Amino acid sequence: MLEYLCLSRNTFDGHIPEQLDHMLNLDTIDHSHSMLSGQIPKSLKKLQHIQALNLSFNQLEGEIPSGGEFANLSAKSFLRNYALRVAPKLHVPLCLDKTERQSKSNAARVIAACAIGGSVLFAVVCTLIGISCRRKRGSSKRPDDIERLRGITLLVISYRELLHKTSNFSDANFIGSGSFGSVYKGILADGMTVECQ
Cross-referenced Gene3D superfamilies, in alphabetical order (predicted)? Predict the structure, then answer.
């Protein structure tokens, strides 16, 4: 004769079987921490020897059967079943029904979306202000930079002339290596010494 039925901490889902009421000698049932759903069968009131029933941490809904051995059970037997309406005798507040839970969930989503949207908007505004400030600073320096460049004359030298002035990039004219390659010395026709890479 089965007296103790423990199926806790499993991934059982679905409804609690009505046939449990045929196991009249059961004194302990533990179906906690599973994924059971639906209502608690009223036929379980027939279990006359039940001393401990643990249906906590499931997805049960509806009302807890009243009367029979259920009158002797504590609220701990039904914890974390958010759609389950607990008997007032057990001194546990009624759980929210689905529409109340959904409206609270929707409100939380709206608040989260507003917070994220506000943060993104703030970041975009700060970025645009930063770009605007940099442009203003950059545009105020440009006239001075242009004035300095007016006195500089650019010298255009062909690749063939560079080969000739560096003796075909010979080792004798090698100065060193830079981040973009080797550096060579060359002497132009007017006597000016140049470096080229």
Answer: Phosphorylase Kinase, domain 1, Ribonuclease Inhibitor
